[in-house]
C-alpha cells in the first residue's frame, strides 16, 4: 500500500484543551468580562467548553462556531473579515455558510507548526473576545495567529 493513500493527523488532547479553557477563563476574569470558551479538535469537534457565570446565552453557539471556523479554515475569525471585505460576491454570499464567523475571537491552535484545533471565545465585544483567546494561547506558549 502506498504511503500517499493515508496521512497521520495530530489533534489537540483533552488535557491541553482544558488548559486553554482555564487560561482563557483566567484572562476573562482579569479583564472582568464573563465569557463562553470553546476548544475544538483538528476537525472542529467540541473538545472542551466553559460558560462562565454571567456569560450571555447567545455566546454559547457563537464561541463554538468561532472555534469551528478557526479549525475548519486554519485562520483566525477576524482574518475572514479582511479576506472578504473588498470582494463583493464573496462578502455577500460566504456569510450564509453555516457556522462561519467573520469577526474576532476564534483562533486556530498550532503546536510545533501544525494546526491541532481551534479556540473560540464570546461574551464581550469581539475585541475583548480576541484579547481573551489570544491571551490564553500566549499564556500556554502556542500559536494561534493566521
User: What is the CA-CA span between the terminal residues?
Assistant: 35 Å
The number of helical runs is 5
Query: Largest beta sheet, briefly?
Result: 4 strands, antiparallel
What is the CATH superfamily label? Haem-degrading domain
Low-confidence stretches: none
| CATH fold label | Beta-Lactamase
Shape: globular
Spatial arrangement of strands, main beta sheet:
2-1-4-3
Helix and strand topology:
Layout: H1 14-31, E1 36-41, E2 46-51, H2 58-73, H3 77-84, H4 88-94, E3 106-111, E4 114-122, H5 126-139
Antiparallel strand pairs: 1-2, 1-4, 3-4
Helix pairs in contact: 1-5
Structure description:
With 146 residues, the protein is an alpha+beta fold. The chain has one domain (10-139): Beta-Lactamase (2-Layer Sandwich). It is built from 5 helices and 4 strands. It has helices at residues 14-31, 58-73, 77-84, 88-94, 126-139; strands at residues 36-41, 46-51, 106-111, 114-122. A 4-stranded antiparallel beta sheet has the order 2-1-4-3. Strand 1 (36-41) and strand 2 form a beta hairpin. Helix 1 (14-31) packs across helix 5 (126-139). The longest helix has 18 residues, at 14-31. The termini are far apart.
